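Before we proceed, please read the two lines closing this message. Let me know whether the structure tokens fit the sequence:

…
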Amino acid sequence: EVERVRYSQIVEDTRPSSKVQGVVRREFIKLWTMEELSGVSPKDLENRDLENGRKAFVDASCFACHRVGNEGGGMGPDLTAVMRRFSPVEVLESIVDPSKVVSDQFGLTRIRTTDGSQIVGKIVNYYGDSVGIQTDALDSANILRIPSAEIEAIEESFVSPMPPGLISSLTRDDILDLLAYLNSVSGG
């Protein structure tokens, strides 16, 4: 019993924080397109305001689903080293058009039921007589159980769980600062 309590405290102490303080709701600026942002290069990320970049990351709600270091959620890819693997344009493309490429690790499933309804989410368990699907990425405890007899089809969804437009309240400078922030935490 003492060991269980000790280990549970270690887990709690090292668990990433998904509740980020200081989120500010910003006014809508514009729905950014890749044409407007495609010319961004690593040179554009030099001498940027990293504190503003982190703030933009917070305000765009990125921490709700993405982890950076030991902070943020685990529903989306860990972005701690994203700029080591992808160019600024590739990262921007994933933000502007999140459904263009959806990793099967983070993709969703669509369940069509015999009554004609569709449920989209992440399958978290097969219970034998039913399927457990999480329909709200921000509420992992809420699992809907659908009886197997009511399932007509289970299909891959090609729509990203990340909504488009998350950077629509950021200026171009905020977006560049956000990329520079990700670059800095990636070791760049």
